[in-house]
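Backbone-to-sequence.
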């Protein structure tokens, strides 16, 4: 098999690449996905989000034991199906802060400033409600506020944030990020709108695009410092496909560095430990791992929340209401509202986030966070204090030379004392919001943290309930220092014909949920492959520059 381009990974960026590169009928594109088709019913139903983790559409990774988090091995869901994580996430559409991208550019990554990436955000987007220069209306990806269901507590949370000193913000993705408001979601017609649904499925009929699922890539084939193809496993057979132009890895922040190392690209000492021939010594492969972390601050309430719908008869009524009328809580994400704030003295204009979810998991630490069937049936809601700019850094390594073994994932969570202090401070900030007058009519009792009497008590709660927000980035960072893996055009240093286009290229994590940024990286990555300049995109989108 020979193609012009081979894309490894049909996730949030890979589906975008497949669409944009195959738009030229003279170009042939192969898209390889280790998971299967996105036929699982729960993918379509927004509120069925909790049924996707630990299922056949999830890689189901775990961290190594976390020394600073009670030695917990923390769960790391990753999409393993067409659409990748956009098929299993909470559908929140958040771009991050303009300063995030300006920082990338300031680090020497030409073309990645906020003004230069904004056209790629708008090119993807069809925003149902917001019509301004920060949003697109002609793109394939549908963005909307929740239309058919919202608990009254969500609006009360926003008002509580305002009462506690935050500004109202009806659009985190517009002129300013700071403030409180409702989430925008990747939902269309009350169904999840993944990148598979938005970008890939509409073009599957193109004769120049070949998609192979259940195809686990073993390695990139390197000849004379050039990527010439890939070797992949389908069933019990191993196949080879060749690329006349480029191989593009879009396998994510865990699998992309693993695949580079399996191909002989990485730290030479690490590769030799696993008897892998060294093709290119790049010590930064797998390093610089960053992720967002959150925990629960919860209260009980007298109004029906998502806990109400966990009762078997209410689940049946809820799903019937969804299937027959596309109404009710099943039409939307498990998240409803949100706030961005400045919490520390860092130079970042936004460094902390408060997710709001109309559900709680109790105060006895028994429920399984990833199994909603274990949650209490008593009504409650949760504020999730979220650190956005962690200082702790980790790495991804090889467990063995087998591509079928999960990589070693060591995030080193809370290894930096500043992260501990920030989370304690953020938890107290969330409690301020929880106690605001706007929530008085809904809040009957604050149940977590169960002990708020000291920083030590709050920290113990943090360590018991803290989870990642499933936003791993940075393991093949973009840049020009000795630890950089790709340049500003996402080309792997020292290897021709090989690019990375996914969250792994972020030099520093953004201030917000990462999926929108990864889709943008896919859009920009496609133009870098094709040699299109941002000025042409800006002209096509009618964007003259930032307003």
């Amino acid at each position: 098999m020979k193609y012009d381009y081979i894309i490894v990974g049909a996730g949030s960026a890979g589906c975008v690449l497949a669409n944009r590169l195959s738009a030229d009928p003279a170009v042939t594109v192969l898209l390889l996905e280790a998971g299967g088709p996105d036929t699982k019913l729960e993918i379509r139903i927004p509120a069925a989000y909790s049924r996707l983790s630990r299922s056949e559409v999830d890689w189901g990774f775990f961290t190594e034991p976390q020394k600073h988090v009670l030695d917990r091995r923390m769960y790391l869901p990753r999409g393993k199906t067409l659409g990748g994580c956009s098929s299993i996430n909470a559908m929140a559409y958040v771009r991050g802060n303009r300063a995030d991208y300006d920082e990338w550019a300031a680090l020497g990554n030409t073309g990645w400033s906020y003004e230069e990436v904004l056209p790629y955000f708008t090119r993807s987007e069809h925003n149902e409600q917001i019509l301004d220069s920060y949003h697109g209306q002609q793109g394939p990806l549908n963005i909307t506020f929740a239309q058919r269901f919202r608990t009254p507590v969500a609006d009360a949370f926003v008002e509580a944030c305002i009462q506690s000193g935050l500004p109202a913000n009806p659009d985190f993705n517009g002129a300013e990020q700071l403030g409180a408001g409702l989430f925008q979601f990747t939902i269309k017609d009350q169904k999840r709108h993944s990148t598979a649904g938005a970008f890939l499925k509409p073009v599957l009929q193109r004769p120049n695009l070949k998609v192979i699922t259940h195809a686990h890539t073993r390695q990139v084939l390197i000849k004379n410092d050039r990527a010439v193809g890939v070797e992949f496993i389908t069933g019990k057979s191993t196949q080879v496909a060749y690329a006349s132009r480029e191989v593009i890895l879009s396998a994510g922040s865990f699998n992309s560095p693993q695949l580079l190392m399996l191909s002989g690209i990485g730290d030479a000492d690490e590769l030799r430990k696993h008897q892998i021939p060294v093709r290119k010594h790049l010590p930064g492969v797998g390093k610089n791992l960053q992720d967002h972390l959150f925990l629960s601050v919860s209260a009980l309430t007298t109004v029906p929340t998502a806990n109400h719908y966990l009762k078997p008869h209410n689940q049946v009524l809820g799903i019937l209401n969804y299937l027959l009328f596309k109404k009710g809580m099943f039409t939307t994400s498990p998240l409803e509202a949100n706030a961005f704030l400045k919490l520390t003295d860092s130079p970042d204009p936004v460094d902390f986030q408060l997710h709001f979810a109309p559900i709680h998991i109790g105060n006895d630490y028994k429920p399984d966070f990833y199994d909603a069937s274990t949650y209490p049936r008593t009504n409650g809601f949760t504020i999730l204090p979220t650190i956005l700019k962690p200082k702790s850094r980790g790495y991804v390594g090889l467990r063995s030379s087998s591509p079928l073994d999960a990589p070693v994932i060591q995030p080193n969570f809370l290894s930096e004392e500043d992260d501990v202090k920030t989370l304690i401070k953020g938890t107290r900030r969330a409690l301020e919001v929880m106690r605001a007058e706007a929530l008085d009519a809904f809040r009957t009792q604050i149940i977590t943290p169960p002990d708020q009497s000291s920083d030590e008590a709050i920290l113990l709660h943090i360590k018991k309930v803290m989870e990642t927000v499933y936003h791993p980035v940075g393991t093949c960072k973009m840049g020009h220092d000795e630890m950089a893996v790709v340049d500003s055009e996402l080309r792997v240093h020292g290897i021709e014909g090989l690019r990375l286009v996914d969250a792994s290229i972020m030099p520093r994590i953004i201030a917000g949920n990462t999926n929108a940024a990864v889709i943008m990286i896919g859009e920009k990555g496609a133009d870098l492959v094709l040699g299109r300049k941002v000025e042409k995109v800006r002209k096509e989108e009618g964007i003259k520059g930032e307003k």
